[in-house]
């Protein structure tokens, strides 16, 4: 898989999570206010409250991972578990999908797709959970 | 001539195999060094997130939701946090590395109003968390890229080692055996011809012997052999 990397190009960080996480991230400065980009791609954050439907989550995830100017997408584990099927099939290098714990859901290392692969590589993996990619 | 071609091919395949093996080793070395760091970074991330959430809750308590949302909106007005992608080269494989851009400069208006201190504190915590998350994301991408590259390289190394090289060695052995066979056949043929010639010579000798024994007079004189020649006065 060839990645086209233009050296030094500036990229954004995307966030999908519960309200507190997204608030904190926006406070840290993740939010993009560029009107043109917003019009083209939509905002680079998505608040997944309890009433959001699964397809809205899926749509937000697909939208953010298809953006050429986002380099990391941070997803809380709660949301990640809901769209696990998308994450397991996700095989692009950029943007990177990083699972973060949220306030109410403690971090479960067994669910994290990438850590599973790490464990398999280290040799102490749970082969059933991790999906081997060719 | 085909032999020479195949010998060259074998050398090429063996050289390629050793080069690819070196590449695979370099990749695996880099891979292992990332692995440990990545695991550690992810685990640290949990603690940091928790601390950051606590700081945020604290600031909400002090500044109220409105204060926090105001601060957030102020932050949104500024430039978002940008990451720069650099590409690193490991044994010919391009690996992306994310470099965090400049952090938001101190937003003074967030300090105004109730709980400004807490908000700033929360913001610092969150920025720190974000920086670590970007680092973790960078390591993750490197991990994924290296993983794929290692798989491909190992596949090629094994293919060369188990398929291409043995095949060429077999072909070379076959060619050599055929050449030997040809040589043997040639040798054998020569020997046959020699034997036949020897037999023929022996046969002639025997014939002469018989003829001589049968009648000496009948042995043809040289004069008769050459027939009537007017130059020779008999």
Report a brief summary of the structure:
The complex is a heterodimer of chains A (134) and B (234). Chain A contains six helices and four strands, in the order E-H-H-E-H-E-H-H-E-H. With 134 residues, chain A is of the alpha/beta class.
Textual characterization of the structure:
The complex is a heterodimer of chains A (134) and B (234). With 134 residues, chain A is of the alpha/beta class. Helices cover 39% and strands 17% of the residues of chain A. Chain A is globular, with a radius of gyration of 15 Å. In chain B, strands 1-2 form a two-stranded antiparallel sheet. Chain B is mostly helical and 234 residues long. The two termini of chain B are 67 Å apart. Helices cover 77% and strands 7% of the residues of chain B.
Largest sheet of chain B: 2 strands, antiparallel
Which spans of chain B of ≥5 residues are poorly predicted at pLDDT below 50?
none
Please tally the β strands of chain B and state the result. 2
Distinct helical segment count of chain A: 6
- Taking Cα atoms only, what radius of gyration of chain A do you get, to the nearest Å? 15 Å
Order of helices and strands of chain B: HEEHH
Shape of chain B: rod-shaped
Summing up helix and strand content along with how strands pair, one would put the structural category of chain A as: alpha/beta
- Strand arrangement within the widest β-sheet of chain A reads 2-1-3-4
Number of helices of chain B: 3
Indicate the radius of gyration of chain B in whole angstroms.
47 Å
């Amino acid at each position: 898989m060839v990645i086209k990397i233009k050296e030094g190009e500036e990229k954004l960080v995307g966030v999908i999570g519960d309200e507190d996480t997204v608030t904190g991230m926006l406070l840290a400065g993740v939010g993009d206010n560029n009107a043109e980009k917003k019009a083209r791609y939509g905002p680079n954050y998505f608040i997944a409250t309890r009433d959001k439907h699964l397809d809205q989550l899926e749509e937000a995830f697909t939208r953010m991972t298809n953006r050429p100017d986002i380099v990391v997408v941070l997803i809380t584990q709660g949301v990640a578990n809901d769209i696990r099927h998308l994450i397991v099939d996700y095989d692009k290098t950029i943007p990177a999908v990083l699972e973060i714990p949220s306030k109410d859901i403690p971090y479960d290392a067994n669910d994290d797709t990438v850590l599973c692969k790490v464990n398999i590589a280290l040799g102490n993996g749970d082969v059933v959970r991790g999906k081997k990619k060719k | 001539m085909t032999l020479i071609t195949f010998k060259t091919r074998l050398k090429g395949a063996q050289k390629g195999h050793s080069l690819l093996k070196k590449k695979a080793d370099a990749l695996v070395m880099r891979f292992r060094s990332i692995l440990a760091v990545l695991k550690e970074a992810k685990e640290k991330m949990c603690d940091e997130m928790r601390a950051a959430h606590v700081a945020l809750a604290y600031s909400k308590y002090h500044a109220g939701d409105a204060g926090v949302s105001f601060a957030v909106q102020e932050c949104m007005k500024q430039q978002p946090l940008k990451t720069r992608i650099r590409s690193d080269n490991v044994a010919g494989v391009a690996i992306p590395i994310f470099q965090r851009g400049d952090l938001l400069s101190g937003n003074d208006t967030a300090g105004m109003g109730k709980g400004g201190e807490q908000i700033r504190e929360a913001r610092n915590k969150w920025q720190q968390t974000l920086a670590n998350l970007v680092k973790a994301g960078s390591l993750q991408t490197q991990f994924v890229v290296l993983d794929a590259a290692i798989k491909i390289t190992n596949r090629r190394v094994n293919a060369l080692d188990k398929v291409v090289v043995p095949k060429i060695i077999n072909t070379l052995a076959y060619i050599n055996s055929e050449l030997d066979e040809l040589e043997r056949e040639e040798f054998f043929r020569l020997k046959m011809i020699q034997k036949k010639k020897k037999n023929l010579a022996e046969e002639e000798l025997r014939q002469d012997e018989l003829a001589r024994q049968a009648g000496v007079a009948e042995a043809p004189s040289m004069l008769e052999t050459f027939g009537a020649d007017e130059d020779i006065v008999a």
